[in-house]
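Lab notebook, page 48
Experiment: co-folding of the full assembly
Goal: obtain a model of how the components sit together before planning crosslinking
Operator: M.T.
Materials (sequences as entered):
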Amino acid sequence: MPSTPPLAYVVAGSEATGGAGIQADLKTFQQLGAYGVGTLTCIVSFDPQNDWGHRFVPVDPQVIADQIEAATGTHDLDVVKIGMLGTPATVDVVARSLAAQPWRHVVLDPVLICKGQEPGAALDTDTALREQVLPLATVVTPNLFEARTLAGMDRIGSVEELVEAARRIHAQLDTPAGPRYVVAKGGAELPGPDAVDVVFDGQEVTVLSAPKIGEERVSGAGCTFAAAITAELAKGADVPDAVRTAKDVVTAGIEARVAARTPFDTVWQGAYRP
Ligand code: PXL
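Observation: model returned without errors.
Model output:
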């Protein structure tokens, strides 16, 4: 008899070392017991000969549309994570393709700039993302840099400023049909002994903290966090519970991080035990 596991869908880029991007997303889905379905937006290949710079190749917009058509035609998908898009044309085709059906949750990891892109092109992409995809999100998970950019703030140096950023970003989400959540991540960079995340649902602020594991950033943490939220939502959790589980997944994955020749280690999703 065929089975019907929870289905988690991701639209994101490939990061060829396996540390971030759709590779991290699909591993996270599997670890949490969700069946992963993925659509590729771009291919990022770090360059070991050139200081691990990002080589970036977008997938043709029609091919992205075809993948979304294949995925949504095959399965009843109602929870989607959006990761790196990378060009205005990609933002446009993803926004238009996703609009073809209703979504119970759209989890947006607003990956803004990627080294190796033209600054001008990246600005266009930021604007397109903000105008076309951000309003659709039910959950958005900016890191410190993305929170500063989306909130239009010069600096975020405290939990209070992170809360202010979350409020400003929440104001840019569509008028809620249901509650919408900004999860602003302080990560390793926000000063203090703890890795702090601020959750704002439009009314209440919740602050989640876990002791920092070293001061170094670990690649794939942001992807894994948003993917874990997506998997938990696919399994039927509500957003606050999904966010709490995602923080545990990332904490366990950073504690057991994978050594690499890149300047940063990467998250080991396989370390998490519910
Ligand atoms: O971690 C952000 C990220 C997301 N997606 C892709 C990436 C990266 C960072 O390198 O390459 C495809």
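Interpretation: Residues 12-15, 20-21, 44, 83-84, 111, 222-223 surround PXL (CB under 6 Å).
Next step: discuss with group before ordering constructs.
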